[in-house]
Amino acid sequence: MEKGYIQLYTGNGKGKTTAAMGLAFRASGCGLKTLMIQFMKGQDTSENKAAVKSSFINIEQYGLKEFFVETKSDIIGHRGECRKALNRAAEVLKTSEYDILILDEIINALKYNLVSFEEVIELINAKPEKIEMILTGRDAPEALYEYCDLITKFDEVKHYYKSGVNARKGIEF
Q1: Euclidean distance between CA atoms 138 and 117, whole angstroms
Q2: Which domain holds residue 34?
Q3: Residue 23 to residue 36: CA distance in whole angstroms
Q4: CATH assignment at residue 82
Q5: What pTM, to 2 d.p., does this model score?
Q6: Which of 5, 52, 106, 150 is the most buried (most CB within 10 A)?
Q7: For residue 171, how far is the Cα from the chain centroid?
Q8: Is residue 65 part of a domain?
Q9: Which letter, b or e, does each residue of 71-94 get, where b requires 16 or more Cβ atoms within 10 Å of its Cβ?
Q10: Predicted confidence (pLDDT) per residue in 66-89, tens digit
């Protein structure tokens, strides 16, 4: 790629991580290498199992095994994992190993004060010209918009979760 852009996938709708993975799978068809760094995720997921089958997509998780719940979770443990994710992202941006860097759920980490706005901007500013960067997560602050070249907002209109349907393997995880 001659020029990489900064994409933001946000909103309360389903599909932000899946859209980022779709981009990674499309890029792999052109021989582009992707690294997805997952913030706040330490669970085994189907997207991770699918990515293992591709030599062009790597996923690294930086999160505890239990899902983050603001009032109940080990905030120090989650913050420590997010720190590792930030450091890894900064390290990757200094190399030309990957064409695409997906920072999955970094916006949620920002929302819950596990990373700071300034730290997110530091990563954006450290992005080399040729790397495509994708940020995902709910409730991106509007102040972030000026740093992004493409913003897609996923809006939930209706979701079966609200009628008691739990997350389904292969569909939601």
Answers
A1: 14
A2: 6-157
A3: 11
A4: 3.40.50.300
A5: 0.90
A6: 106
A7: 18
A8: yes
A9: eebeeeebeebbeebbeebeebbe
A10: 777 777 777 888 999 999 999 999
